[in-house]
Design goal:
Blueprint lengths: L9 H8 L3 H8 L7 H11 L3 H8 L8
Helix pairs in contact: 1-2
Length: about 60
């Protein structure tokens, strides 16, 4: 999803969403689940359809979602 939006780094994604870069890195590595607020921001910026947000964010391997 990031690539399709022209976002190549967690620093860029952090800047666009307001979600801490370290938190984003942990989420992308599957170490933590994003908070509801972080998910809302990511869904908005990445334009993820709500019906797909849950399956993406709760996937065991987020990098491949």
């Amino acid at each position: 999803m990031m690539v399709e939006k022209g976002i190549s780094t967690t620093i860029q994604l952090s800047s666009l969403t307001g979600v801490n870069r370290n938190t984003l890195s942990q989420v992308l590595r599957g170490e933590i689940q994003p908070s509801a607020e972080a998910m809302r921001k990511l869904v908005s910026v990445l334009e993820i359809p709500p019906e797909h947000a849950g399956e993406i964010f709760f996937s065991p391997n987020l990098r491949n979602a």
